[in-house]
Design a protein that fits this description.
Radius of gyration: 18 Å
Strand content: 15-25%
CATH superfamily: ATP adenylyltransferase
Oligomer: single chain
Strand order of the largest sheet: 3-4-5-7-6-10-11-9-8
Distance between the termini: 47 Å
Shape: globular
Number of strands: 14
Helix content: 25-40%
Structural class: alpha+beta
Number of helices: 7
Length: 292
Amino acid sequence: MNTRTEPLRPQELWSRTLDTTGQGLTTGALQPIATECRVLEHQGVDFQVRVLGRAHLKEDRARREPPRAQPFNPFEHPDPHLVVGPLTPTHVCLLNKFNVVEHHLLIVTRVFEEQESWLTAADFEALALCMSGLDGLGFYNSGEAAGASQRHKHLQLIPPLGPEGLRVPMEALLTPPPPRGQVLELPALGFAHRVTGLGPWEDSPSRDGARMLDAYRALMAAADMHTTPPPPYNLLTTRDWMLLAPRSRAESHGINVNAMGFAGSLLVKTTEQCEHLRQLGPMELLARVTRP
């Protein structure tokens, strides 16, 4: 169990993640979701499609809890066996209890904030701290239509998915990234989006976080998303680029899509859904859940 009170340093993040993963598996606090991963190539991207097993679907139905008067908030008093460590005065780092991808981290606000609220300098500083320790994909699901499953504000970070040195499959179409400060729509991406570059990574949470905040605001402005709360969207970021996908709906053809879908990683419930996705094309699925 992690009882640390001093903030995590970037160079400690990975070892603490591995230690906490081991403890979570031993105690049962961490409950990975087993899937079979298949590759569907579409429009230059090797999409990773993870298929749930029949056994998991039965277990999922069996463990569903009865409705509560108030929705359960797993981040209000997080399971100590899932706590990787404190990050900043405003954020802590947890393991995702029901993870599909190994070592899936959550960057959670200590005090409740709505998941649909605007991202802040504090959010990006905490994310940048973690990304200095893990050069993967950071992402944010804003609103139910964007795949958010919890109201308590949290960003997420996963290790590189590949293939061949890419952090995510979609990065094949994002290399090299646009220059810093330039917001683009890339014709190769077959869904509604805005993308920009972040410039050189400095390994300074405050400076890297500030640069990410500037990029986020530029993307939101370019997509004409000015209201509070903003319309639903997914945000994806690496150390090099940031991408915004405005959302119109949570799913299409029975397949739910969150930010990882726009990274090139999708989850389907059955082999039948996987075959339907192959016929439709993953990029077409993404187009159907983004805002026209």
